[in-house]
Amino acid sequence: MTTVVIADDQDLVRSGLQLLLAGRGVDVVGEAANGREAVQVVGRTAPDVILMDVRMPVLDGIAATEAIVRTGSRTRVLMLTTYDLDEYVYGALRAGAAGFLLKATPPAKLVAGIEIVAEGDALLAPTVTRRLIEEHIRRPPPAEGVPSRIAALTERELDVLRHVAHGLSNVEIADTLFVSQATVKTHLNRILAKLQLRGRVQAVVLAYEIGLVRPGDTTSEH
After folding, report:
1. Left (φ > 0), alpha (ψ -120 to 50) or beta: where does 148 sit?
2. What CATH code is assigned to 136-209?
3. What is the model's pTM?
C-alpha cells in the first residue's frame, strides 16, 4: 500500500484529502499544517509520497521540498497548486519536486498521480512542462561547444537529454534513436547520476537553463 503525508495549511483540505485517499486504498501516515511540520513528519514517517501545498506559512512548499531533498529522503514530493501556471511551480520543480497536480484534480486522477510518482516517475505532461519552463525561464546566451555543466555526458547521453527536454517518453526516444527502452532507461539513469539530479523533471529544467534546448525548438533542430 502506498503511504502518503498531506501538507496543507487548511484543515478542511487535509481532512478531505485524508478521507478521499483512505477510501481508495492509500495509507495516509501523517499530516502537516506548514512546511516545517511537513519536513518533520516526512523525517518521522518516510512516506512514499508527500502531497505538498505550494503556499503555506512558516515554510512554504518550495523551501520544504528543498529541505526534504537535502536530507536524501526517498520520499517523492507531489506539489498541489490552484493554478497550472502558478509562479511557484517552476521553483518547486527546480527544487526537486517530482511533479504537480491541480487541487481541482478528480479523485481517480489524484490517486493515479500519487501511484505514478511513488513508482519513481515524473507527473508532468510534456506540454505543461514546456509551457512552465518557457514562461518562467530566461535562457542564457548561446555559447560555443558543450556547456561545462554537462561536459561529462557522452554524445548519446546528450541526445537522450535533448529528447527528454522536448517531452518525449522513453518509448518515443527508443523509437527515435532505434534502441531499446532498456537502453534509454540506462542512459537516463547515467545522466541523472552524472549531473546529480533527482529526476526527469530536473533534467528538463537543466537542459533549458544551460541552453541545450530552447523554447520553440523541435526535436529535429540539433
Report:
1. alpha
2. 1.10.10.10
3. 0.72
